[in-house]
Amino acid sequence: xxxxxxxxxxxxxxxxxxxxxxxxxxxxxxxxxxxxxxxxxxxxxxxxxxxxxxxxxxxxxxxxxxxxxxxxxxxxxxxxxxxxxxxxxxxxxxxxxxxxxxxxxxxxxxxxxxxxxxxxxxxxxxxxxxxxxxxxxxxxxxxxxxxxxxxxxxxxxxxxxxxxxxxxxxxxxxxxxxxxxxxxxxxxxxxxxxxxxxxxxxxxxxxxxxxxxxxxxxxxxxxxxxxxxxxxxxxxxxxxxxxxxxxxxxxxxxxxxxxxxxxxxxxxxxxxxxxxxxxxxxxxxxxxxxxxxxxxxxxxxxxxxxxxxxxxxxxxxxxxxxxxxxxxxxxxxxxxxxxxxxxxxxxxxxxxxxxxxxxxxxxxxxxxxxxxxxxxxxxxxxxxxxxxxxxxxxxxxxxxxxxxxxxxxxxxxxxxxxxxxxxxxxxxxxxxxxxxxxxxxxxxxxxxxxxxxxxxxxxxxxxxxxxxxxxxxxxxxxxxxxxxxxxxxxxxxxxxxxxxxxxxxxxxxxxxxxxxxxxxxxxxxxxxxxxxxxxxxxxxxxxxxxxxxxxxxxxxx
Length: 557
Ligand SMILES: Cc1cc2nc3c(=O)[nH]c(=O)nc-3n(C[C@H](O)[C@H](O)[C@H](O)COP(=O)(O)OP(=O)(O)OC[C@H]3O[C@@H](n4cnc5c(N)ncnc54)[C@H](O)[C@@H]3O)c2cc1C
Description:
There is one protein chain. The protein has 18 helices and 20 strands. It has 557 residues and is of the alpha+beta class. The strands form three sheets. Strands 5, 6, 7, 8, 13, 14, 15, 16, 17 and 18 form a ten-stranded mixed sheet that branches. Strands 3, 4, 9, 10, 11, 12, 19 and 20 form an eight-stranded mixed sheet that branches. The chain has a two-stranded antiparallel sheet with strand order 1-2. Helix 2 (35-46) packs parallel to helix 7 (176-189) and helix 2 (35-46) packs across helix 10 (383-402). Flavin-adenine dinucleotide binds next to helix 2, strand 10 and strand 18.
């Protein structure tokens, strides 16, 4: 179960890891396996704390697989005067690019300037200049102001009658679910005991202080009691549910807003690069080409429905399509063009009188009288720093109780998952080597190597080696690659349901939905044998994936 350095997220080790959490008392138990919880577990374990983490769904299945998938420098926060936030996320972005260059990619973003738009020419120029400096943007990535003609040259699909020019700046594109799993893997390799499909259902108190949690394994139905010196509520949109359970929901509370994205084939919105554009209601929207598709988002509306799987409504979809057609009129997109979609909830902190878009994206830590530590708000982009603040608070309290000094945060120098590259140049060299070495099993297709490296970094080697072996045993190339990736997911990334693999580990449901229909039966059959599912389990998992597959293109009221 353990590696010389810690744990592996092997699906078959789930129960043993849960069992291990019940032995003695953890230093810290984290509830929630999104990016916030994963970051906290990584930070705590790397400082040597005895760390556990439970996630009631799959890792990243909450908001952390449903974002715009950008590591922002935080341009929009500049408009809200949140200079410190811009400075912090800019610095964090550079650290993340250094530690995980395989899942964080610089992306040129075009900001068209339009009559009556959010940013005027001078304001944009000054804004982007300030942004570059605050966010510590490298010299060769600093903003460039463009004339109207240059802007049209870069993106001919743009509406031209209201266009006056443009700004070009760098954002960083990521895969949020993969960032979460790579962070979780790093936490586990540092010794954190992390398990998905394990729900914290009840707190345990001694003398009114929270000392433990009852956890139910949603796969086996077994119950576990886990004790910890400090318990951290990192449950994203669910944090207030746990605060209610702890009887500490007073003062500040969450304000959930829903954000929706649509995916269309790139040929239906053939942008040459990413664009961040104005829409008539005063908001701004991203359109980002990726993997042969273009995705568009996001909306930002108050939300009060069920927290699991928020739906995309026809109103959401129509809003985004109308917005695209406003700025790219020749696209003439319609609802039938939508190939996939997703919807997520922002766990923001409520501020009286503010609209969803005006609410601060800052994070805050609350400590309840029982000792429960809650982290709320924040962004994917700032997860490392958020984790540092939480673990600093935890070690401060533990140090006072135990008269012991803990080491400080070290995650700024910790490579994530397969990200052990000394520079982006070394990453490119690595891609080239793999293309040559595995020409046979990839049939010389560059895209196959690129996609594996973008997802798994250095660990792409393990997958390609396994695929080569399967191919040598007579398996068709496509199936050997698919099964090798799935086997890696089962051994290293705690894939439990087919959807964990087809939605979050590979991103296929969002960026290649037709493939999900074709590959699902193969994935299901392999997993049924490998994990000894009952017929009932197989049917239940089949239905769950089918429902997500359909929801991606069926919009409710
Ligand atoms: C539409 C949209 C676009 C966004 N775009 C960006 C972007 O481009 N860049 C950026 O930096 N940020 C972005 N964000 C913000 C970012 O996605 C979130 O801040 C971040 O993902 C929140 O992570 P989290 O771990 O706090 O919450 P979550 O990812 O929701 O994780 C919380 C987890 O807790 C689990 N949980 C809840 N209750 C329990 C329990 N009782 N027991 C065990 N587990 C439990 C849940 O299942 C869930 O997985 C966006 C957000 C949205 C909604």
